[in-house]
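Quick one, probably user error.
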């Protein structure tokens, strides 16, 4: 006759109370074959109701190994609603093989091995859904095994700092998204506080603790929101500092976004933790609202907070906006105005020059196909000029140009790696450079080289003009000062683009060469000026308000984008990629000399004037040697390739930032 489950429970409870042990060993094969199904039923492991017959009684306790009474009560309804509610108790408590138990209070539960076994079983049996769920748990276990909680306790090496059941009550683990789990979540600060009492006491007084402990706000931050759940480690580690910073952005998305636009945030995004992070300014467990007088970022306390890193910080630091938003005119008008101006400048410059590039390429390509190129130098006209070159640039200018090119490329590489820190390529470049500190050193050294060359040429021109200032023709053909003829040449050039007139003839300096030259003055004023402000923040803040840093950071980056993209598109086109110049590179800035044919074609008016006045021969030199020509071409191609690589990186970073901004 079949024995019911209820009867079995009654028998087990009576036997338990009588003190006679009942064992089960069906899996070991101890059931005799002749007993039939009734014997198998009796020999099977008991279901949870049998266990709850004792453990379901409120107040149920038993002595632990240390002699203290250990609470062993399990609330039936709460357990059955948990993720473990459908499993047998003895699936976890594997060493219990009889009732009553032996060695009460010493039974160990292997959470890690249990989930690992279940995961492997689901994988073998091809239970896709269960395998995915258990796989997520196993991943969490692997993360836990690498955490500080899984390491041996310093005071007692025989145990870990914390194991699964120290944080989770195994009987009451609830499914994600359930109401009861949301309620349990609010208890986590108290669970963590069992070990971290000082941190818990500070947390209770914070804005986060107030929302969680007293207002039961389910969206407010708890310990695991900042420290993660299973990958917890020493918060003094750089990697953990960065994780906590990113976790702040999980709730404070807008603040985190604006933080990453600052140098502090850019360095953190690159994976380095030496600049200020959220908790360095706002505090950690005891964080308060900004308007609270006890807040570390309250206006009355802000300077002291800044001085933790910037020892000599002045009052100007107080008005710096670490979360300034250039899209918010009401709160940050100066940033909005600066950003709007820079965007308009970028659009205007590139709209004009890229249109010019496209039309120019089309017209030169068409003329080249129709053999309408400019006339060559006729050897029968000036036979003595055959094989001669025109010396256009001296050695000093060529060295200056090379140093300028290298310094600019170094500035772009180091600067854009920080500006576009969120780009996938930026951390790779920064790792190769060494660190943002090394990059900053390279960046500033390159800036000094650039500025030295800039001011050297100013001194040179000033001395040349100074000696002849009475007779110097400021708007003559040899002057770089823009003049009315440049506008006429530009308009004539556009007429030629559209086939409405001949290509204009140019003198020593073309209008685009003058633009290249004078654009540097603007760049030095904007990039150089803002860079110096950021390089020497204490000096800047001693005379200017802190919001200047926000504007300086913005215009420094935007103007750098303008300069880099202009150089590697417009400047490269004008000098290397026009059909007249193909194949690149144009090596005049490395050899200093240009063929008379090209000189007459590109600077016809100057050529004619030199011939007419008999001065041309003063500037004639022999053609550059073969090694000089080859070396110049290799150097030119190398610089062009590197410049185009930088252009690609800038474009990737720029488009990525546009996508991130939405």
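Nope, works fine. Designed sequence:
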């Amino acid at each position: 006759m079949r024995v019911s489950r209820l009867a079995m429970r009654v028998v087990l409870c009576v036997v338990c109370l009588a003190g006679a042990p009942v064992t089960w060993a069906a899996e070991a094969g101890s059931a005799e074959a002749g007993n039939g199904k009734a014997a198998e039923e009796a020999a099977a492991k008991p279901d949870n109701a049998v266990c709850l017959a004792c453990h379901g009684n409120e107040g149920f306790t038993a002595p632990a190994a240390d002699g203290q009474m250990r609470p062993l009560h399990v609330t039936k309804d709460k357990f059955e609603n948990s993720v473990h509610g459908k499993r047998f108790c003895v699936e976890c408590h594997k060493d219990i093989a009889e009732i009553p138990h032996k060695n009460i209070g010493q039974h160990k539960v292997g959470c890690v091995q249990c989930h690992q076994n279940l995961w492997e079983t689901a994988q073998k049996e091809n239970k896709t859904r269960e395998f995915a769920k258990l796989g997520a748990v196993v991943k969490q276990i692997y993360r836990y095994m690498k955490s500080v909680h899984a390491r041996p306790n310093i005071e007692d090496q025989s145990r870990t700092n914390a194991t699964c059941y120290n944080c989770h009550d195994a009987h009451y683990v609830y499914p994600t998204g359930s109401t009861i789990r949301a309620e349990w979540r609010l208890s986590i600060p108290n669970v963590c506080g069992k070990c971290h009492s000082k941190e818990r006491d500070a947390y209770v007084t914070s804005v986060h603790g107030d929302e969680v402990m007293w207002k039961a706000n389910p969206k407010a931050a708890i310990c695991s929101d900042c420290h993660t759940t299973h990958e917890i480690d020493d918060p003094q580690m750089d990697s953990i500092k960065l994780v906590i910073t990113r976790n702040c952005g999980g709730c404070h998305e807008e603040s985190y976004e604006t933080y990453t636009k600052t140098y502090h945030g850019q360095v953190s995004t690159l994976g380095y933790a030496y600049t200020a992070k959220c908790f360095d300014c706002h505090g950690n467990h005891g964080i308060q609202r900004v308007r609270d007088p006890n807040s570390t970022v309250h206006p009355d306390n802000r300077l002291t907070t800044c001085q933790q890193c910037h020892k000599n910080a002045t009052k100007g630091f107080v008005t710096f906006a670490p979360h300034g938003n250039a899209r918010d005119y009401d709160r940050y008008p100066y940033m909005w105005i600066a950003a709007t101006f820079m965007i308009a400048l970028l659009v205007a410059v590139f709209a004009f020059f890229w249109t010019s590039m496209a039309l120019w390429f089309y017209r030169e390509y068409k003329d080249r196909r129709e053999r309408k190129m400019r006339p060559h130098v006729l050897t029968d006209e000036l036979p003595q000029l055959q094989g001669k070159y025109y010396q256009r640039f001296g050695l000093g200018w060529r060295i200056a140009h090379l140093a300028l090119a290298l310094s600019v490329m170094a500035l772009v590489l180091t600067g854009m790696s920080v500006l576009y820190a969120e780009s996938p390529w930026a951390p790779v470049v920064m790792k190769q450079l060494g660190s943002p500190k090394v990059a900053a050193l390279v960046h500033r050294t390159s800036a000094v080289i650039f500025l030295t060359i800039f001011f050297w040429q100013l001194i040179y021109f000033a001395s040349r003009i100074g000696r002849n200032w009475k007779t110097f023709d400021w708007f003559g053909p040899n002057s770089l000062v823009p003049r009315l003829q440049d506008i006429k040449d530009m308009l004539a050039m556009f007429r030629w683009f559209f086939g409405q007139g001949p290509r204009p003839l140019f003198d020593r300096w073309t209008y685009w060469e003058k633009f290249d030259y004078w654009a540097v003055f603007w760049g030095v004023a904007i990039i150089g000026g803002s860079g110096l402000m950021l390089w020497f923040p204490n000096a800047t803040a001693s005379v200017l308000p802190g919001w200047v840093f926000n504007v300086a950071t913005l215009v420094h980056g935007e103007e750098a984008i303008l300069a880099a993209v202009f150089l590697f598109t417009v400047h490269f086109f004008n000098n290397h990629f026009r059909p007249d110049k193909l194949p690149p590179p144009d090596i005049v800035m490395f050899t200093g000399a240009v063929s008379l044919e090209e000189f007459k074609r590109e600077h016809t008016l100057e050529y004619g004037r030199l011939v007419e006045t008999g001065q041309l021969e003063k500037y004639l030199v022999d053609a550059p040697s073969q090694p000089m020509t080859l070396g110049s071409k290799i150097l030119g191609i190398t610089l062009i390739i590197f410049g185009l690589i930088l252009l690609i990186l800038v474009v990737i970073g720029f488009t990525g930032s546009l996508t991130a901004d939405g």
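Residues 333-369 form the longest helix (37 residues).
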